[in-house]
Amino acid sequence: MNGPQDLGGQMGFGPVAPEIDEPYFHAAWERRALGVTLCAGAMGAWNIDESRHARESLHPADYYASSYYEIWIKALEVLLKRHGFVSERDLEAGTAVDPAAVPKRVLKAENVPAVLATGGPCDRPVAQPARFKAGDPVRTKNFNPTGHTRLPRYARGKHGTVEAVRDGFVFPDSNAHGQGENPQWVYTVVFEGSEIWGEGADPTLSVSIDAWESYLEPA
Amino acid sequence: MSHDHDHDNELDPFAARVRALETILTRKGLIDPAAIDVIVDTYETRIGPRNGAKVVAKAWSDPAYADWLRRDATAAIESLSYTGRQGEHMQAVFNTEDTHNLVVCTLCSCYPWSVLGLPPVWYKAPPYRSRAVIDPRGVLEEFGLTLPTTKKIRVWDSTAELRYLVVPMRPDGTEGWSEERLADLVSRDAMIGTALARQPA
């Protein structure tokens, strides 16, 4: 979706503000926000694509006014309500009022090291051979889907070159919406800065994205 | 300002919101608060940019390892026991005399947790995410890094599940250094691409 998350090339946000010796957390609640988000995800009710889509579906004004951990928590509330774990009445009361759906699993402290060390690999076998090979000229699709996608607006309808064929990966555009993993080949596609930004582009710049096969057409 | 009250009862609204959510989920038996403690401890004390610095130092010291890292970063990094969440599919990109690499996630905050730990706030915030792809030189200036005008800049937008680690160029004057000592020259920002490796003192 053309949501607030799709930031590449937007203007007006001001300078980057690197913080010297930045701590990992800027408030005690951020620690809990990280942990609650990971533990809730470990219940197995939604996948990473659905959670990304919940974050980018926040109202743009809310998204831009929120820190990243705030975005995480606001989206987590949406996911927990959607999947029947938390109700509006629970949130209003600030405590458990209504019964919850049954999770696939509950992450216990003793299992955390193994779960974090394993992560969630998203590579999958793809039955068909890769359509493109390194060096192929391609054009990215021009589309504006209302659902989740990982093709940023700045890279739509652009000519680029396949630099590498990666692997088969879960397709976020369907996986975010409970429509299956539908794995596709993923390619690193590189664009000249001038192809993306046109007049005034930095002549030394090239930008690459990692693109699922259905984002690409031969050029 | 009076300080004769209990600050624990004076949560700001967002802290209260997170605490309420944790309470609800705990009371329903959906999460284990002790698991949160382990997660926080892992990312606050165990997994951080020192991991990535050791990968870079090894690549600087061992051409065979560097070659492996270039071909199959996931396996090469796993051989040093750095695995897991947000490092499942790794790609190493090497700075050269000609080209400087810079990593961003314009769409969210994708970042190689297994080798760099949790991302800094600026990496997740709109100024960096919006400008890294259109004005990388301007962004780098804000980090105090001015690249020669002839240097090519390659920006890697992490739009899929590959996570990128920049291998900066090894500074001159470090011949014969141990990997341990070399790793001290490799900052988090150098492995994102917003800095170069430190020069030896």
SSE blueprint and pairings:
The complex is a heterodimer of chains A (219) and B (201).
Chain A: H1 28-41, H2 48-56, H3 60-65, H4 68-82, H5 88-93, H6 112-118, E1 137-140, E2 159-169, H7 172-175, E3 184-192, H8 193-197, E4 205-212, E5 216-218
Antiparallel strand pairs in A: 1-2, 1-5, 2-3, 3-4
Helix pairs in contact in A: 1-4, 2-4
Chain B: H1 13-27, H2 33-46, H3 49-61, H4 63-71, H5 73-78, E1 90-94, E2 99-104, H6 113-116, H7 121-124, H8 126-131, H9 136-142, E3 152-157, E4 163-167, H10 179-183, H11 188-192
Helix pairs in contact in B: 3-4
Function (chain A): NHase catalyzes the hydration of various nitrile compounds to the corresponding amides.
Keywords (chain A): Lyase
Pfam families (chain A): NHase_beta_C, NHase_beta_N
Question: How would you summarize this macromolecular structure in one to three sentences?
Answer:
Chain B: Its EC number is 4.2.1.84. The complex is a heterodimer of chains A (219) and B (201). Chain A is an alpha+beta fold and 219 residues long.
